[in-house]
Amino acid sequence: MTQNSHPAPSPEHTVAVAIRETGGRTAPAKRGFVQRALRSPMVLSGLALTLFIVLVALLGGLVAPFGPTEIVARPYAQPGEGLLLGADALGRDVFSRVLYGGRDLIWMSLGAATLGVVLGVAFGTFAAMGGRITENVVMRGVDVLLAFPSMLLVLLFVSMLGPSPVLLVLLVALTHIAPVSRVTRGAVLPIKDREFVLWARLAGFSRLRVIVREILPGITSPVLVEFGLRLMWSVAVFAALSFLGYGMQPPSPDWGLMINENRGALRSQPWAMLSPILMVAVFTAGLSLLTEGASRLLNRTEDAR
Asked: What is the pTM for the complete model shown?
């Protein structure tokens, strides 16, 4: 043995170096995703529409000419004389109620989608990373949830417990867990046996760290798509619940409730009903474009790795 010889590196050292090198190669791709997103017409269009609705919901009350429950004209007054969109069934300014009406819908939809996706990802990852018994138990529970129609499940509990906003968020989040869990499990299964995950295990990392550092970054694209779908579904469900009378209650300036209150005047005063419909449609379209565009860019980023 010569004097310049060195002992062979341990397997743990080799694994750690490989992991660091792998992470260094993926960093430029992650930075490139943001740059491509800012140049994507689909992402920019979706971002613009979504931000428009969010700004209307957050700041609309500051520029509304009247209060959301203030009676300012005769019922179903036509646009004009200070009423940009006319009056509703009780003589309240439609434009002012539209500006006030998105707050509850946005925070409830975001809360339900976020909670549902987080729990669904947790259950799906737990099922994929656990043993056969664990996977069967979790997925059979998921199948039970999928057996119940989502809207009927929400209506059942709301009719018994009342239309509390917090309860509505929890119930809608519950309906998201099952589909997100199935998608997450399907995305984790082909990743958990890949080289970089095996390297992390050989390096002695805990299972939680392996999941957070190695598994979850690899399923970003399907999870993002699911979050967008769950968010759009939440918007539709909350608007539908308010329209049916099981969501936000009068005199709340909720867009779904406005559609229900003014559905009888579609011919005489169409803006009282069409304006909240348009706001919900723009919000949903913006989310769809933003999610689809981001998903395509993420797929390209992952292919570049």
From this structure: 0.83
